[in-house]
Amino acid sequence: MTPGARITRLIEKRGPITFARFMREALYGPGGYYQSGTPVGRDFHTAPRVSPLFGKLMAEAVRRVGGDVTTLVEFGAGSGHLAAPMLSALPERLRYFGIEPGASARSELRARLRPFGRRAEVCVKFPDRTFRGTGIVIANELFDALPCHRVVGTSAGLAELYVGRSRDGRFVGVRGKPSTSKLERQLRAEGIRLRRGQKAEVCLEAAGVYRAVERAFRRCVLIAVDYGYEAEELYSPLRHGGTIRGYFRHRESDDLLAGPGEQDMTYHVDLTHLRLTASRYGFKTQWNISQGKFLLGLGALEMMRGVTMEERLSLKTLLMPGGMGDRFTVLVQVKGMSLSPSWCPSLEELAEKGEG
Ligand SMILES: C[S@@+](CC[C@H](N)C(=O)[O-])C[C@H]1O[C@@H](n2cnc3c(N)ncnc32)[C@H](O)[C@@H]1O
Predict the structure, then answer these.
(1) Among protein residues, the one whose CA lies closest to atom 19 of ligand 1
(2) Which helix (H) or strand (E) holds 328?
(3) Is 159 in the pocket of ligand 1 (CB under 6 A)?
(4) Whose CA is nearest to atom 3 of ligand 1?
(5) Is residue 140 in contact with ligand 1, taking CB distance under 6 Å?
(6) 46 CB under 6 A from ligand 1?
(7) Tens of pLDDT along the chain (356 residues)?
(8) Considering only CA atoms, which of 120, 39, 29 is closest in space to residue 83?
(9) Which of 55, 141, 237, 265 has a CA-to-CA distance to 228 between 20 and 30 Å?
(10) Cβ distance 278 to 137 under 8 Å?
(11) Whose CA is nearest to atom 10 of ligand 1?
(12) Comparing C-alpha atoms, which of 51, 92, 60 is closest to residue 223?
């Protein structure tokens, strides 16, 4: 059964479904967008696909943590374009777990990690266990792919945008009361009140990621790279229609509800929510920095010296202000430990050392 047929059945049985449920079925259900192909690279690019040096610089981030790092976890590992260059630059004693719910990306990931043997394990979901020593968790563009609810401000308070079916069989947006009070609570905790008619996305799934990591490690560093804004900016009237978009073959698509399973759906991440949620689970956000500055702090300039012209240009794409360099934010969050400021020196510090 196609995702569209499954969603139709769900709606016929119970009436309109939340957008989060629609998105989960369309992206991750059987035959869904992330189950039936390897869309990263085909429909959009991510940093590990743009440059293998992204993985090498992540390896440097891991090396600089030092101490008793035993385990490396990558949430949303995709097809292994970050993992492979990263693992080849790290000591063999480190165990890697790549978590990937997408079936075809997972089989590519497995194939790409074969040369690393038992050092690398591929899983559908985060292993429910505790690990010894310090863990490092990496999530590149994970949060922008988690199913979200859609809400709208009304004169009577918050309403939710559900997905229903029109008489002629199309999926259509339907307004209703919020499916859960968590939606309003999450926005209120950030001091957000939507204006009348203002639409927005609210993701309730980030807590699940932090909860799993918090249970697994007594000490850990979580590095999340994503595009997004602080709540005040994300939910400002400037973004009256919200930020969720459909993508197909590098182009924005107009209709989010058309052809479920055929297009990606992604939205700007609420960085304030990630920081607040992290702190509820005992994490402190030590760096909140643009991708460009983060990679420079890890030694991107020195790395450029010893690589091919093609690699140099690919790394430049990740660093460029006005492009990926500042469109992406890196949150470095620590639990049970803290990193020395020299782990990722600022541009001023690099310039003082003559490396800028
Ligand atoms: C935008 S893609 C990024 C893939 C890869 N990190 C990269 O940068 O190329 C998002 C990935 O997150 C995965 N994903 C979605 N929900 C997840 C979850 N709950 N746990 C782990 N991975 C998840 C998707 O299957 C998809 O591969």
Answers:
(1) 146
(2) none
(3) no
(4) 141
(5) yes
(6) yes
(7) 899 999 999 999 999 999 999 999 999 999 999 887 665 555 568 999 999 999 999 999 999 998 899 999 999 999 999 999 999 999 999 999 999 999 989 999 999 999 999 999 999 999 888 999 999 999 999 999 999 999 999 999 999 999 999 999 999 999 999 999 999 999 999 999 999 999 999 999 999 999 999 999 999 999 999 999 999 999 999 999 999 999 876 678 778 999 899 889 999 999 999 999 999 999 999 999 999 999 999 999 999 998 999 999 999 999 999 999 999 999 999 999 999 999 999 888 888 877 65
(8) 120
(9) 55
(10) no
(11) 142
(12) 60
Tokens of 303: 């790395």
Look up the pTM and report it: 0.95
- The size of the chain, in residues, is 356
From the alpha carbon of 225, which atom of ligand 1 is closest? 8
Q: List domains and CATH numbers for the chain.
A: 47-146+204-227+268-352 (3.40.50.12710)
